[in-house]
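[recover] target loaded
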């Protein structure tokens, strides 16, 4: 499994991902390549481990323990999120914050759960950059606007390959494979991007305010001309800032 683009030369120096889909792809790639992820705990301890697995339904990923026992104990007792860095087989550098470490076991071996990061920075340069923290992006969407049952929803993700995530009320019953005709996604500037969406999988999710909603992965049936504008909201080129 690879990071979002196969062509290293085509990548900008720095990309900031808020896309959950892309972040999970990158973490899965780091796990597949057995890349070390490293976090500095306090001033003197370094936690170095491998990613073992991603638990998408629970929004977590799992790592091995570090060979440094003191670092393991310090990390599990650390009150704040920690910042990990990792390099892949192409020499690209990634950094991301992870929180809520919790000791667990996988196949009888000790391991540590973390909450999935909300953002991830890809950069080629050696200098260490701090990840900007922002609120989770949510775009208003009038789903099925040209169909039989228009309803209010929110798009919370759009990835490089035109996949996305839709959040909507529990009272709306839709099936996998449903086509939402002429759905209108409203950008922060108030412009509308119109496209047909095909629902790929549906589950329930707990929102930041504690309420529960339906969550559906979707793909664009026809790629809208403004797709790059939507992608740029979730995957930002930091060198253009």
């Amino acid at each position: 499994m690879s990071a979002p683009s196969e062509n290293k030369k085509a990548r900008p120096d720095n990309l900031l991902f808020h896309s959950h889909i892309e972040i999970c792809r990158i973490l899965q790639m780091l796990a597949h390549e057995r890349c070390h992820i490293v976090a500095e705990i306090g001033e003197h301890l370094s936690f170095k481990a491998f990613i073992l697995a991603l638990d998408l339904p629970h929004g977590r990923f799992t790592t091995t323990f570090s060979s440094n026992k003191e670092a393991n104990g310090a990390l599990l007792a650390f009150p704040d999120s920690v910042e990990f860095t990792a390099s892949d087989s192409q020499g690209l550098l990634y950094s991301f914050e992870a929180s809520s470490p919790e000791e667990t076991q996988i196949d009888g071996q000790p391991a540590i759960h973390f909450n999935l990061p909300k953002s991830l920075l890809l950069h080629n340069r050696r200098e260490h950059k701090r990840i900007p923290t922002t609120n989770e992006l949510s775009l208003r969407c009038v789903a099925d606007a040209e169909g039989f049952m228009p309803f209010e929803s929110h798009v919370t993700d759009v990835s490089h390959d035109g996949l996305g995530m839709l959040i909507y009320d529990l009272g709306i019953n839709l099936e996998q494979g449903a086509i939402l005709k002429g759905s209108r996604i409203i950008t922060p500037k108030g412009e509308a991007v119109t496209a047909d969406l095909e629902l790929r999988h549906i589950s329930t999710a707990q929102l930041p305010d504690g309420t529960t909603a339906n969550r559906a992965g979707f793909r664009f049936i026809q790629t809208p001309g403004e797709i790059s504008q939507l992608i740029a909201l979730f995957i930002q080129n930091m060198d253009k800032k």
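[recover] notes: The helical segments are 20-32, 69-77, 227-234.
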